[in-house]
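Appendix C: a fully annotated inverse folding record. The material below is reproduced so that readers can follow the format used throughout the book. The structure is listed first as tokens, followed by the designed sequence.
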């Protein structure tokens, strides 16, 4: 049995303006969605510094806020629990670790020293303070005088 075939091949010109409009709206919506998207984390205002040497060793990142809260792996943690987690990290690391402190610029020296001594008790001997390069300023942060 033969079926009638009504489909014809389109041989005309495509209207590109409708495709361009849809593409433009899609790009616009994606850009707006990225601005509104919530990014989890703790707001820490790092101090600015010039070109400083870093480290090639593996690091353990610990955040310290101006109100005294400590963050390990982006989760709030108490000092006693932090020491245990740092000891676990030292045991599982193949080479010596460096403590990278993401500290708010308003944190006292005493808080940073207490955190560094806690890391030393856990087996981490090197400590670095994370800074922002002077050429880069984070959005929303005032530039240094």
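Designed amino acids, in order:
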């Amino acid at each position: 049995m033969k079926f009638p075939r009504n489909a014809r091949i389109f041989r005309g010109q495509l209207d590109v303006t409708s495709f361009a409009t849809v593409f433009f709206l899609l790009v616009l919506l994606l850009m707006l969605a990225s601005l509104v998207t919530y990014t989890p984390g703790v707001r820490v205002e790092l101090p600015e510094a010039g070109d400083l040497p870093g480290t090639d060793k593996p690091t353990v990142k610990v955040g310290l806020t101006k109100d005294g809260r400590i963050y390990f792996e982006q989760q709030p943690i108490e000092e006693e629990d932090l020491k245990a987690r740092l000891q676990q990290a030292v045991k599982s690391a193949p080479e010596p670790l460096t403590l990278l402190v993401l500290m708010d610029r308003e944190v006292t020296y005493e808080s940073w020293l207490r955190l560094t001594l806690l890391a030393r008790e856990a087996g981490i001997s090197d400590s670095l303070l994370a800074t922002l390069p002077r050429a880069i300023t984070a959005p929303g942060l005032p530039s240094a005088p």
